[in-house]
Structures are given as structure tokens and as C-alpha cells.
User: Fold this.
Amino acid sequence: MNDKSPIVSQGLADIVVGDTKIATVGLKGSGLNYFGYSIYDLAEKATFEEVAYLLLYGNLPTRHELDNFQAELHSKRAVPKELCSVLELVPKDTHPMDVMRTICSFLGNLEPESETNELNLIALRLLAMFPGALLYWYHFHFNNKKISTDTNEPNIASHFLKLLTDKELSDDCKKAFDVSLILYAEHEFNASTFAARVCTSTLSDYYSAITAAIGTLRGPLHGGANEFAMNLIEKYPNSQEAADGIKHSLENKEKIMGFGHRVYKVSDPRSDIIKKWAHKLSEDNNDIVLFPVAEKIEQVMWDEKHLFPNLDFYSALVYHFCEIPTNLFTPIFVISRVTGWSAHIKEQRENNKLIRPKANYTGPEPKDFKPITDR
Assistant:
């Protein structure tokens, strides 16, 4: 064997595998930026639709461009009847992320990518249609009704909440949900984005790349942490029991989801933003248990393990206060991140090279083949 074995980085940790102009994640103290715009500014001053436009086209829209963009999204909300029929057949106990995967894959059969149905048009279609398709399946199986997948709501956040609850939620709730979509929209070469780029590098179609990304996001080490976080927060009736319970879990070396990050080493800038909204909604709902429990868990995790909350932890509370069922938390990630995935698929296509890393072989030395009679 070659004594000069290559340096191996398990999980490609700290390995730079390509260039991107889309986002920075913890780069040289710059925090998180989308096309150069700070996530703090975007969360405070922009809407999710503005951020979606930024990711898809590389610049913030003018008023006229944004109006046209929102009108086009509104026109693309309808779920095809063929897809509705498929969703009625998808079992009630199906994981909602598998539903999202099916929605994307089946739409690719109905409206395949072509010269006239190119990437940007499909990205808009998925962005507009995902909320209605997911909630059509949800209401059909959990509430025994077929819903209209259109509303008069002006943006994706209020459209989703209206389809889900069929009532008028507070402006704080709508804004908090909109901010969460901004925060989840893009995050450089994370696992699902990289999966989309690997698929794209083979010259596969857009739907295949998005389906690969959804399948990757489904894994609990990538997406789904906000669901685990909500279940954890709801487990404790008060802060003291939360502190005792988390310490006990740590002593037993149990993994606490929603803390730490592969790239960020000190804090997740997105967490600071969403925590403020979770606190605001907690006050709006006269909550005296959930937010204090969450803060106590945060404190114990920092004191005991020096781990900070990531975006998923306090997003769980925002979604809970917006009356979103816990099993729908991760599909919301898809509704938002399809914008970032689309940006990366475009970028990969612009300067494509097949992504094919090498492996460090650790198997047996070469062997002589023996006939079956001699084995």
C-alpha cells in the first residue's frame, strides 16, 4: 500500500470544494450574507419575496419588479388536479418531507423542464405551489376536507398561514413567520445544497436536483431539528425541571437537537434574530412556560457544553405560536430553501464540472481469486 496516504477530512469538514457568489457563512467575521446583504438587514428591512428575488436574480428588486414578481407567484399557486389526486393517495402516516419529495417529483412529470419551462419559471412555480400542495395533503388526511389552494393573501407567509388555519392571525405572527423564511432561505454549501449541486453537476434536470435536496434535508442531522426542539421544550412544565432534565440527558450523553453548528463556532447569527420574535410571540400569547423553559435549556447547554442555539431551536417556538403543527416544521424549511437551492443549481450550471471526489481506500490488500471448489 502507498505509505503516503492522502489527508482525509471526514464529512469534508473544512474542505473548500468550490466557489460561490451567493452567500457567506461565518467567513472572516462577516456572519451570514446573501449576495453581500447582511442577514440582519434582510430580516429587519426586507420581505421574504424580496429575498427570494435576490437569490433567484442576484439583486434586490425595484418596487415595479417586486410587484410583478409577487403577481407572478400569486398566479402560480394552483395545484394541478392530477397532483391533488396523487396527494389523496399518499397515506396519512407518511412523513411530510416524503410528501414534499413526491410533490416536487410528480410535478416534474406534469411540467417538465424545457426550453420554454426553464429553471427560473419552475423555481417560481415550486415556491408558489409548495404551500398549497402540502396543505392540501394535510387537510385531506387530517381534517377530512379538500381545500382550495389559493387565497387572496399577498405573500407566501400569510398565504401559508391562511391555508393552514383558515383564520386571521396577528401581524406579529405573520411577520415572524416571514422572517423565519428569510433566515432559512440560503446557507452556502450545506448538505442539501451540496446534494443539489452534485446532482446538477451530472447535467440532470432541475426537479431531480431539488428532489435530491429534499431527500437530504429529511435527515435529522440536517433538517428536522426544530421538530425535536419543540418536542423537547414541551416536555418540561417549568424551568427547573428543564434544567434538571437537560443535565440528566447530558450525563447520559444524549444528543440535544437545536444546538451547535458545523460552521459557526461562537453563535448562529440567525438564532439571535428568531429568538427576539419567539419572545415577542410568547408575550403576545401570555406564555409563562414555553419561552422560559427554552431559555433555561439554552443556559444549561451553554454552561455545561458551551453550545449555542442554532436557528432551529427558537424557530420551533415561533412556529408553535403561529399554530403550525410540529410535523410540518421541516417542510417549511423546504418552502423557503427552494430559493437558495435554485440559486446554487443556476450557479453550478454556469460553470459546471462533474463533482466526483476521491475516497481513501481502507479495505483489504489484493487477493488471489480461488475457485469455488477451493474456498
Remarks:
- Residues 119-142 form the longest helix (24 residues).
- The chain is about 55% helix and 0% strand.
- Strands lie at 23-25, 32-34, 37-38.
